[in-house]
Amino acid sequence: MTTKSLDITQIKEYLPHRYPFLLVDRVLDWESGKRITAIKNVTVNEEFFNGHFPNKPVMPGVMMIEALAQTAAILSFLTMDVKPDEKTVVFFLGIDGARFKRPVGPGDQLKMDVEIIKVARGIWKYAAKGTVDGQLVVEGELMCTMRTTDELAEK
Fold first, then answer.
1. What does the DSSP assignment read for 48-65?
2. How far apart are CA 70 and CA 78, in angstroms?
3. From the candidates 17, 35, 52, 111, which is the catalytic residue?
4. Rounded-to-10 torsion of CA 69, 12, 111, 92
5. Partners of 118 in beta bridges
6. Is the dihedral of CA 17, 98, 41, 33 positive or negative?
7. Measured CA distances, 113 to 35, 48, 52, 142, 147 (Å)
8. What is the pLDDT of residue 129?
9. Tens digit of pLDDT for each residue in 15-74?
10. For residue 154, what pLDDT band results from cuts at 50, 70 and 90?
11. What is the reported pTM?
12. CA-CA distances (angstroms) from residue 32 to 41, 94, 105, 114?
């Protein structure tokens, strides 16, 4: 089986996020309808380290969850075999069982593994986990949906 990967330029075709909020640096491998593995290289230059915390930089848990959610969104688009247009919005609907096992800081490489649990009525559910050097640092079940700005305008 061949490895399917995406570099940062390709990732930007699937995610609208940009610095400082683009939190996926590379997709290492993915399988349509099943799973994806991606990485976030955590550097001391991250904006959030200016305030979290200046004397002991720690990646905020919500940023780790956001990185997992962005990875999940890429998997969804790859699974649907579509690239989103400027009207497509992915909404994060919820997370169940979020657990943070250890801090992530500058110099760490957050490896993110996301698997599709199910897709029903436009709701995607994923099992997601992040590791650093093979150690679990974050996990949870994510849910999201996709809408267009036209649909949002109708509400």
1. GGGTS-TTS----HHHHH
2. 12
3. 52
4. 0
5. 125
6. negative
7. 7, 23, 25, 12, 24
8. 98
9. 999 999 999 999 999 999 999 999 999 999 999 999 999 899 999 999 999 999 999 999
10. confident
11. 0.95
12. 24, 23, 31, 12
- Enter the tokens of residue 106: 């500058």
DSSP string, the chain: -----B-HHHHTTT----TTS----EEEEEETTTEEEEEEE--TT-GGGGTS-TTS----HHHHHHHHHHHHHHHHHHHHT----TTEEEEEEEEEEEEE-S---TT-EEEEEEEEEEEETTEEEEEEEEEETTEEEEEEEEEEEEEEHHHHHH-
Q: What is the pLDDT of residue 2?
A: 63
Contact 71, 114 (CB under 8 A): yes
Q: What is the pLDDT of residue 155?
A: 64
Q: Does residue 52 have an active-site annotation? A: yes
Query: Hey, what are 80's tokens?
Result: 């649907």
Domains and CATH numbers, the chain: 8-154 (3.10.129.10)
The residue type at 57: P
